[in-house]
Amino acid sequence: MYKLLIRPILFNFDPEKVHHFTFRMIKFLSALPLFSSVTRSMYHVNDSKLEREVFGLKFKNPVGLAAGFDKDAKLFNELHDFGFGFVEIGTLTPKPQGGNPKKRLFRLKKDSAIINRMGFNNGGVEDAVKRLKKNKGVLIGGNIGKNKVTPNENATDDYIICFDALFDHVDYFVVNVSSPNTPNLRALQDKEPLTQLLNTLQEKNLKKPSPKPILLKIAPDLTNDQLFDIIDIVKTTKIAGVIATNTTISRKGLQSNLTLANEKGGLSGKPLTNRSTEVIRFLSEESNKAFPIIGVGGIHTVDDALEKLEAGASLVQLYTGFIYEGPKLIKRINKALLKNG
């Protein structure tokens, strides 16, 4: 029903407006008697064989929602009803920020893709914490970043503020230095500043009675040499793992018209499928499976998810595939995992 009826209607309107409209509708419907229980009965696949224990956490199933969809932690309980094993909120920054000027979100229908240059638009970490206190048992990842106005030499301070604010309210952290939509942010992926940032967070983390897993989200545009650096950084800093990958700045092979395809921002969706899997396989093989990887990027089919798991991912996340394919994709992936044993 989603692809035949709902999606064609929604795709006639501005994607950012549709995003907010959809949030309001899900929130409204979830407040109705039985809606949430009916939704769970339709989309949840409850089987202990789907459970995964990764970096010390138990996931009900290995299919999660990637960061960027529920930036402000407004809908994580309701989105969990669609069958996700975990939900990653954010990217959150210390102070609220409006993000980049609109229009900043574009559908590339011919490519089953999206370009976004949102720019970490969010209401600030403290505002999100208020809603996270109402968590009804959803396993939550907290994706953290820096404010646009914060210079890179002070970026660590921003990450620490978010880490401290979220610590009691999320199950794992994701350090986002790979978004292409905040000026100079990707420079923090360089070996020296990234090692310093992660070491600082780990020092704070390990002083806690129960430290939380810290993961690093990386870009798909890194060279092999840079990926070797990532492997070395994970080993040096002893963080829990890597999320591969964020959106890409590449526009290779797109079928959409040039005006649309050349919009600035990060590209997600089907064009990212193969590169994301390549990065996962490289990290897994070259590190000798030394750390867990969450695979994200271009998962639109069951086979896309299975390929990422076979390449070395322990868990997968959806974003653009969820928008294009609907919630049945989550169920199909979980059913396939049970069938394949």
UniProtKB/TrEMBL annotation:
Cofactor binding remark: Binds 1 FMN per subunit.
PROSITE patterns to which the protein is assigned, alphabetical: DHODEHASE_2 (PS00912)
Protein name: Dihydroorotate dehydrogenase (quinone)
Gene Ontology biological process terms from the UniProt entry: 'de novo' pyrimidine nucleobase biosynthetic process; 'de novo' UMP biosynthetic process
Pathway annotation: Pyrimidine metabolism; UMP biosynthesis via de novo pathway; orotate from (S)-dihydroorotate (quinone route): step 1/1
Known catalytic reactions: (S)-dihydroorotate + a quinone = orotate + a quinol
UniProt membrane topology term: Peripheral membrane protein
Active site, UniProt feature: S179
Family: Belongs to the dihydroorotate dehydrogenase family. Type 2 subfamily.
Residues annotated for FMN binding in this entry: A67, G68, F69, D70, K71, T91, N143, N176, K217, T245, G269, G298, Y319, T320
Annotated organism of origin: Aquimarina spongiae
Subcellular location: Cell membrane; Membrane
Annotated function: Catalyzes the conversion of dihydroorotate to orotate with quinone as electron acceptor.
UniProt keyword terms in alphabetical order: Cell membrane, Flavoprotein, FMN, Membrane, Oxidoreductase, Pyrimidine biosynthesis
Gene this protein is translated from: pyrD
Main location: membrane
Classification via Gene3D superfamilies: Aldolase class I (3.20.20.70)
Cofactors that this protein relies on: FMN
Molecular function GO terms recorded: dihydroorotate dehydrogenase (quinone) activity
Subunit text: Monomer.
Entry binding sites for substrate: K71, N116, R117, M118, G119, F120, N176, N181, N246, T247
